Amino acid sequence: MKRLLGKRGEHSYNPQEVLYLIGNINYCYLHMLNGEVIMSCRTLKWFVNQWPHFLRVHKKALINQTYISFYRPGNNSKTTSYIVMVDNAQLEIARRRLLGVRQLLNQIQVAG
Q: Taken in order 33, 34, 38, 40, is the CA torsion positive or negative?
């Protein structure tokens, strides 16, 4: 089920209930903890600035670090690595963001 969000914040929701966001040109799809998908007319960049505790893993994906299930590395430098979320969604990690994402995941494991 998809629901539209207005530009002026007519709808409010708790960022802690958002698993991840997928950007598509000037829209975002918010994948919620309850399985709902909400379409927003905000850009992914807008959400990056609003929710700095979320992690940008790809130009099209922003994830809530709380709901990372595990990290699936590529076999070598040419294959893609993925973050797997608690809903089993596999989100690609961009090659240029891989080092930063791995360092952050190591920090989370040490802290957790």
A: negative
pTM of the model: 0.85
Q: How many CA atoms lie within 13 A of 38 on its CB side?
A: 19
CA-based nearest residue to 37, from 19, 64, 62, 55: 19
* 67, 108 contact by CB (below 8 A): no
Distance CA(98)–CA(103), nearest Å, equals 9
**CA distances for 96 relative to 59, 69, 81, angstroms:** 10, 22, 11
Q: What is the pLDDT averaged over residues 87-106?
A: 93
Query: CATH number for the 2-111 domain, one of 3.40.50.1000, 2.60.120.560, 3.40.50.300, 2.40.50.1020?
Result: 2.40.50.1020
